[in-house]
Amino acid sequence: MLRGFTVLLLLLCAGEAASHALHLPVPGAVVGMALALGLLIWRPRLAGVVEGAADLLIRHLSLLFVPAGVGVVAIASGLSGEWPAIIVTLLVSATLAMLVTAGCTVATARWLARRAPDAAADTPTAAAASTKVTPSPQPSAADTPSTVSAPVANRPASKGADAAPTDKAHRQ
């Protein structure tokens, strides 16, 4: 785990150095994360080295918000007239963060699908989807009622005696 923290710290320092040297308007931590992403794409085996350290940091991520919360409480009296602007800023930035995250997730999923199409065929879901299912024969018009009903598997559960027990029944 020490090696993982060392790699993460070196990437953070490299990001800070690049941000200051190139006068980027982006925080060094963000540049370091971009460097980490590039490094992990270039050397996927490095993920095993940083995995333990990253898991530990994520597990205790809430502790990293304590200093920011204390800072807000300390200067709250000076922000009394600024709350509407702060709330709008928080809502807009949170919405943008969610949209960017969704876009990155979709782009990554597409990239991974193009990168390893053969690996997807080896998954149990793909194997189950590729098995041929023969449809059951349709009943003739003579032995069906005038209204066509959905197959039993697709029917919603009835409220009659043959219905599946509900959660209340399980709790009693």
Molecular structure report:
The protein has 8 helices and no strands. It has 172 residues and is mainly alpha-helical. Among the domains are: 1-66, no CATH class; 83-123. The chain is extended and about 60 Å long. The model is unreliable at 160-164 and 167-172 (pLDDT under 50).
List keywords for this structure.
172 residues, mainly alpha, 62% helix, transmembrane helix
Please write out the topology:
Blueprint: H1 2-21, H2 28-42, H3 47-59, H4 66-74, H5 83-115, H6 117-121, H7 124-130, H8 167-171
Helix pairs in contact: 1-2, 1-3
- Structural class comes to mainly alpha
Count, helices? 8
Gyration radius, to the nearest Å? 28 Å
Please mark out the parts with pLDDT under 50 across 5 or more consecutive residues, or reply none.
Answer: 160-164, 167-172
Mean pLDDT: 79
Please report the distance between the alpha carbons of the first and last residues. 48 Å
What is the succession of H and E elements? HHHHHHHH
Number of strands: 0
Helical residue percent band: 55-70%
What does the largest sheet look like? Answer: none
- Describe the global form: extended
In percent terms, what proportion of residues is strand? under 5%
Subcellular location: Cell membrane
Transmembrane segments: 27-44, 56-79, 85-107
Biased composition (Polar residues): 131-149
Membrane topology: Multi-pass membrane protein
